[in-house]
Amino acid sequence: TTNRTFTMIKPDAVAEGNSGAIIKMIEEAGFRIVAVKKFQLTKDRAGEFYAVHSARPFYNDLCAYMSSGPIIPMILEKENAVADFRKLIGATNPAQAEEGTIRKLFAKSIEANAIHGSDSDENAKIEGDFFFAGVEQF
Ligand code: CMP
């Protein structure tokens, strides 16, 4: 059934001018952009988004990186959205990402890995609501 996922293009990919190429791949893979914006997180706000990782050794670096420049959060819609989008972006570590995936093409490292994709329908809703008001999710 048609459903939604949440993504954000991360600071490394935005700064290098790769956001257009990434959005083109997303649309060519059949995803409809439901909502989109571009802005910069504060470090505190990045920390709230990644609160689930707060005990991890990479948490502080991750929050600094995610607030280092503009990001492009989006809500996307497609049949089987969460699983299909994770296939499109590839493994978290670009060294392990399959050929042709967004991370294989654009990620710099396991941290600066170009793009985020929600890991469940439940998290897609929580993460989309973090960035977009209900009236923006048409
Ligand atoms: P993502 O899966 O979108 O959300 C959690 C992020 O934490 C992940 O992308 C990476 O940017 C980062 N991350 C995950 N694992 C590591 C790691 N081992 N070292 C540094 N950063 C990581």
Question: How would you summarize what this structure contains?
Answer:
It is found in: Cytoplasm. The protein has 138 residues and is an alpha+beta fold. The chain has one domain (2-133): Alpha-Beta Plaits, CATH 3.30.70.141.
Overall description:
The protein is an alpha+beta fold and 138 residues long. It has a single domain, classed as Alpha-Beta Plaits (2-Layer Sandwich), CATH 3.30.70. The protein has helices spanning 11-15, 19-28, 43-49, 59-66, 81-89, 102-106, 121-131, and strands at 2-9, 32-36, 72-79, 115-117. Strands 2-3-1-4 form a 4-stranded antiparallel beta sheet, sandwiched between helices. Helix 3 (43-49) crosses helix 4 (59-66). The chain is globular. The two termini are 18 Å apart. The structure holds adenosine-3',5'-cyclic-monophosphate. Adenosine-3',5'-cyclic-monophosphate binds at residues 53, 58, 62, 92, 110-111, 113, 116. Belongs to the NDK family. GO terms for molecular function: ATP binding; metal ion binding; nucleoside diphosphate kinase activity. Homotetramer. ATP binds at residues 10, 58, 86, 92, 103, 113.
Key features?
globular; Alpha-Beta Plaits; binds adenosine-3',5'-cyclic-monophosphate; 7 helices; 138 residues; 4 strands; alpha+beta
